[in-house]
Backbone:
């Protein structure tokens, strides 16, 4: 009798060609490779030093602005063209606000001391990029990201925005100054008329 093919009737086993040796080998290699790539994700997170394991909490943009203002009030040590320079003590909670189109305020940190750097935005998405280092971080309104940082060397660093945020995006340059330990709050620092001044002047 002629056998009818229908979705209602299962075909007789085994109707397919069993996997050959090479196919089995290939599937095994692919699967093993998948597992290696999969394992690399958490491994990179823990060992690669690429993804900052910071704290993240929700925050109303207006509340974050209040925290930044309080932070500036508490630790302000100077001004450049009306733009505050803030030198928090070692171990402090440090606040940096991203907004169109500035990083507020300018920070002065001490070499070898640890801080928690809180980042958030009061308007839209910005990108925290520390120059000349390869450190990139998304700054999203509504979230407070706390990055644990320990500046390794003194110097004058720039923060640029690497997330397109409108007409002034390319002008969004901030400043983090790292001074020798003990020279932080109230310490003398080289005059840095420049970036912070430009921002304040806009
Ligand atoms: Cu902020 Cu681009």
Residues:
């Amino acid at each position: 009798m002629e056998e009818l093919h229908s979705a209602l009737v299962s075909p007789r086993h085994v109707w397919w060609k069993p996997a050959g040796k090479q196919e089995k080998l290939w599937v095994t290699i692919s699967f093993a490779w998948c597992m290696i790539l999969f394992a690399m994700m958490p491994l990179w997170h823990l060992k690669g030093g690429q993804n900052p394991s910071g704290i993240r909490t929700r925050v109303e943009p207006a509340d974050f602005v209040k925290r930044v203002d309080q932070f500036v009030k508490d630790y302000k040590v100077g001004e450049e063209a009306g733009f505050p320079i803030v030198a928090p003590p070692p171990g402090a909670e440090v606040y940096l606000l991203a907004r169109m189109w500035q990083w507020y305020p300018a920070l002065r940190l001490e070499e070898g001391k640890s801080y928690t750097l809180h980042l958030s935005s009061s308007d839209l998405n910005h990108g925290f990029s520390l120059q000349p280092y390869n450190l990139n971080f998304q700054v999203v309104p509504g979230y407070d990201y706390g990055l644990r940082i320990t500046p390794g060397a003194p110097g004058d660093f720039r923060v640029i925005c690497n997330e397109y945020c409108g007409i002034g995006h390319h002008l969004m340059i901030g400043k983090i100054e790292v001074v020798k330990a003990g020279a932080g709050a109230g310490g003398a620092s080289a005059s840095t008329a420049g970036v912070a001044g430009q921002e304040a002047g806009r």
Q: What stands out?
A: The longest strand covers residues 93-99.
